[in-house]
Amino acid sequence: DAGITQSPRHKVTETGTPVTLRCHQTENHRYMYWYRQDPGHGLRLIHYSYGVKDTDKGEVSDGYSVSRSKTEDFLLTLESATSSQTSVYFCAISGTGGLDEKLFFGSGTQLSVL
Amino acid sequence: ELKVEQNPLFLSMQEGKNYTIYCNYSTTSDRLYWYRQDPGKSLESLFVLLSNGAVKQEGRLMASLDTKARLSTLHITAAVHDLSATYFCAVDGRKGTYKYIFGTGTRLKVLA
Prior knowledge:
The complex is a heterodimer. Chain A has one domain (4-113): Immunoglobulins (Immunoglobulin-like). In chain A, 0% of the residues lie in helices and 58% in strands. Chain A has no helices and eleven strands. Chain A is globular, with a radius of gyration of 13 Å. In chain A, 38% of the residues are buried. By secondary structure, chain B is mainly β. Chain B has a single domain, classed as Immunoglobulins (Immunoglobulin-like). Chain B is built from no helices and eleven strands. In chain B, strands 2, 4, 5, 9, 10 and 11 form a six-stranded mixed β-sheet that branches. In chain B, a hairpin with a 5-residue loop joins strand 4 and strand 5 (43-49). The A-B interface holds A 31, 33, 35, 40-45, 48, 50, 56, 58-59, 90, 92, 94, 96, 101-108 and B 6, 33, 35, 42-45, 48, 50, 88, 90, 93, 97-105.
């Protein structure tokens, strides 16, 4: 299995509080992603990174920010959490070329905003 | 804006039957990916299709890609209960960017 660790695995927070989710990889892959999964919507891309300090918005980036200061870490921050951000968040990584040219997913973070 | 549409969204089928899941996309990407997700679990890669006409098979699942029609199919042959899961297709949103956009998923239930 690809070495991807998401933390925390579960989090309950209150509306208006900041929340940071962490994704850590040991594969040295260039690309890292944050997706959210909601019933009826499949997986939607929030932000992705194509290198250290290089990030781009996805389909549903409003209300989220990201940072990547090291190859192995990709942080997702909800500056002021809202109930609509209750979701399962998946981190993924991808290499380029060959067998690594696909997404490898972390175990997910269940976030509840009350 | 890239659209990736799957149908059907839900599929209930008997063991031993055949069926096909469709994935349509709106971009000119020539790369398409299929993933499987078991309930409460993460996603795992099934197939990587990297060119027009590509066909991949594993067990009872076969995936194909027609880039001219912007269509991929996932065919299930003689379904068994263990294939019950949600299946997603994904496309590289802008060619060469590795910005993967997913379809809404097809939830498959195989009845014994």
